[in-house]
């Protein structure tokens, strides 16, 4: 079995799935990326980023915009972040290959690929063939499979996709698992243990359950603004203080129960990040609707989570 990332580069701990900064007019705003990285490192204690993913609205960006963004994230992350993983999944294989080649050029620490979702692969074999065609253009770049069936509508179990992936894609380094199916997640952990691949969880409101099953870390949108609290949850878990870890997890769940009543979506999430961080990341891009103010949600956040 091949485990591409050297042991000191194994992706673990918290990874922020970054929002894409836009100007008020809806153009990419590269000027916010430096301050954004400083905020994550200094205020949240988050040292890894996953860029141009779901939270980053990658599917609403052009290939050129994704390249500009990835380049700036990598440039500004130098010496401040441990790893920058660039999501290069697209509907078009050619676009994905172009983004993967570019990610290597800008020295990204890894690439991730989602299953295409317009023409949906219906078997693990079809998903793997697509992943292989992207990974093969940059065989020396650590490769992560990004599993998010609720968004892609590709309901092939991740564990089936992982079966034999290391033989097909020697750069395979792990899976970013954004699904509530904890049985499938556990099976991915179990498959990955012998080779030390990273298995990262992506449903922030139940990350503690994934840690119990052996997650190496977590990738998510909320680690942008509550990374310091989830770092605490992880250290309580690692210290065997389950009660303390649960307290933090339950607060996250309370926040989301409240947020869902207010119509929580990516637009609300981004606006919450703007308010909590003080950064100006602008509105989302259509079809995600912008959301003027989420003061009640920010207040709820502050009432649940006193400053770190
Ligand atoms: C569907 C979705 O956007 N899921 C988020 C979660 O972090 C999610 O926002 C959070 O669990 C709140 O529901 C991540 O899994 C997505 C992600 O990591 C990404 O932006 O690529």
From TrEMBL:
<keyword id="KW-0704">Schiff base</keyword>
<dbReference type="GO" id="GO:0008747">
    <property type="term" value="F:N-acetylneuraminate lyase activity"/>
</dbReference>
<comment type="pathway">
    <text>Amino-sugar metabolism; N-acetylneuraminate degradation.</text>
</comment>
<feature type="active site" description="Schiff-base intermediate with substrate">
    <location>
        <position position="176"/>
    </location>
</feature>
<feature type="binding site">
    <location>
        <position position="219"/>
    </location>
    <ligand>
        <name>pyruvate</name>
    </ligand>
</feature>
<comment type="subunit">
    <text>Homotetramer.</text>
</comment>
<comment type="similarity">
    <text>Belongs to the DapA family. NanA subfamily.</text>
</comment>
<protein>
    <recommendedName>
        <fullName>N-acetylneuraminate lyase</fullName>
        <ecNumber>4.1.3.3</ecNumber>
    </recommendedName>
</protein>
<dbReference type="GO" id="GO:0005737">
    <property type="term" value="C:cytoplasm"/>
</dbReference>
<dbReference type="GO" id="GO:0019262">
    <property type="term" value="P:N-acetylneuraminate catabolic process"/>
</dbReference>
<keyword id="KW-0963">Cytoplasm</keyword>
<feature type="binding site">
    <location>
        <position position="55"/>
    </location>
    <ligand>
        <name>pyruvate</name>
    </ligand>
</feature>
<dbReference type="InterPro" id="IPR013785">
    <property type="entry name" value="Aldolase_TIM"/>
</dbReference>
<feature type="active site" description="Proton donor/acceptor">
    <location>
        <position position="146"/>
    </location>
</feature>
<keyword id="KW-0456">Lyase</keyword>
<keyword id="KW-0119">Carbohydrate metabolism</keyword>
<dbReference type="Pfam" id="PF00701">
    <property type="entry name" value="DHDPS"/>
</dbReference>
<dbReference type="InterPro" id="IPR002220">
    <property type="entry name" value="DapA-like"/>
</dbReference>
């Amino acid at each position: 079995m091949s485990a591409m990332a050297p042991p000191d580069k194994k992706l673990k701990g918290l990874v922020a799935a970054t929002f894409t900064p836009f100007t008020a007019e809806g153009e990419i705003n590269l000027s916010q990326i430096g301050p954004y990285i400083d905020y994550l490192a200094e205020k949240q204690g988050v040292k890894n980023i996953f860029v141009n993913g779901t939270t980053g609205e990658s599917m609403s960006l052009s290939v050129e915009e994704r390249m500009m963004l990835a380049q700036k994230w990598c440039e500004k992350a130098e010496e401040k972040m441990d790893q920058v993983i660039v999501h290069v999944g697209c509907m078009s294989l050619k676009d994905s290959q172009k983004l993967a080649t570019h990610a290597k050029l800008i020295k990204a620490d890894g690439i991730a690929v989602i299953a295409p979702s317009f023409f949906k692969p219906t078997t693990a074999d079809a998903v793997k063939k697509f992943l292989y065609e992207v990974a093969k253009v940059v065989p020396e770049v650590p490769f992560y499979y990004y599993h998010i069936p609720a968004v892609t509508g590709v309901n092939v179990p991740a564990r089936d996709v992982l079966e034999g992936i290391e033989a097909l894609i020697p750069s395979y380094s792990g899976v970013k698992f954004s699904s509530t199916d904890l049985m499938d997640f556990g099976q991915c952990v179990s498959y990955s243990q012998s080779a030390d691949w990273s298995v990262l969880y992506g449903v922030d409101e139940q990350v503690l359950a994934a840690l119990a099953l052996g997650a190496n870390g977590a990738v998510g949108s909320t680690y942008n603004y509550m990374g310091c609290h989830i770092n605490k949850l992880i250290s309580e878990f690692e210290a065997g203080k389950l009660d303390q870890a649960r307290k933090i997890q339950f607060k996250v769940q309370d926040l989301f129960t409240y947020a869902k009543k207010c119509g929580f979506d990516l637009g609300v999430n981004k606006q919450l990040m703007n308010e909590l961080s003080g950064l100006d990341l602008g509105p989302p891009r259509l079809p995600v609707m912008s959301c003027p103010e989420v003061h009640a949600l920010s207040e709820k956040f502050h009432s649940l989570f006193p400053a770190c």
